[in-house]
Structure formats: C-alpha cells, structure tokens
Amino acid sequence: MDPLTALSMASTAFKGVQTLIAKGREIEDVAQHLGRWYGYASDIKEAEKESKKPPLFKKLLDKQSVEQEALNAIIIKKKLEEQEKQIRDLIVIRYGIDTFREMIQMRKTIKASREKVVYAQRRRQRHILDAIVIFIGLGLCGGIVYGFYNLLITFSK
What we know:
Strand content: under 5%
Oligomer: single chain
Shape: elongated
C-alpha cells in the first residue's frame, strides 16, 4: 500500500478513536478503531523499510524525485508520531496508564507474529517479481545477441 494512502486511512481511524474516546465510550468500542490505526501505522513503517531497498522495477520506473520522496517520508513519519502521542495521551487520560502498558505489550506480540507472516510473504513476493523481471531482461538481451549473431552469419556468407 502506498504510504500516503495508508496515512490517509490511519488519519481516518485516528479521528474515529478521538471521537469515541471524547464520547466516553468503553475500550472495547475504541479497540476496533485503534486496531485499524495501528495496522495502518505498521504498514507505513514497513513501507518505509521497503523504500530503503526498493524492488528492481520500482528503481527503473519510479518517477518520483529523491527530494519529493524524502519530504513525503518525513511528513508521514512526523504525522504518525503526532497521532501516536495523542492516542497515548487519550488512552492514559481515559483508561489509565496500566491499560496503555498492557496494550503496548499486546501490540509487541501481535507485531512480531505479523512480521513473521504478512511482511515476510510480501518480501517473498517482491523477490519473485524481481527475479521475473531479471529473467525477462536476460531473455530479451539473449534474443538481441542471438539476432545479431544470425545477422552477422547471414551477411558474412
């Protein structure tokens, strides 16, 4: 998912969390929106990691300037930090520090399991796609060399 799209979706989930907490809802009601926000935040952080080692086709076809990519990355990072701090403050004020600590511990556990499954699968898919692009490129180069070879053989007779 594109980091800017994920940030937009995270902001929507964040507004939902703010609204529910402001209305005095219980943590069970807020949990779904929090889960969505943390999911999008995790996707954004993973996209940031992937941008450090972009796939081959993105390196070749990306039209975004380095400056624009850096600016987008820093804006997204700062916005995410701001939202995370506000969520922490809202939870601590409404439900107490113990609830927040418990949630953070559960988040670490869930993040570790997600990292193993979801993001590892994405990385595998990206490696497979890179391999396909490389094989197609090698095939095209081989075809061109073979064509020139046949052309040389034909003209040398």
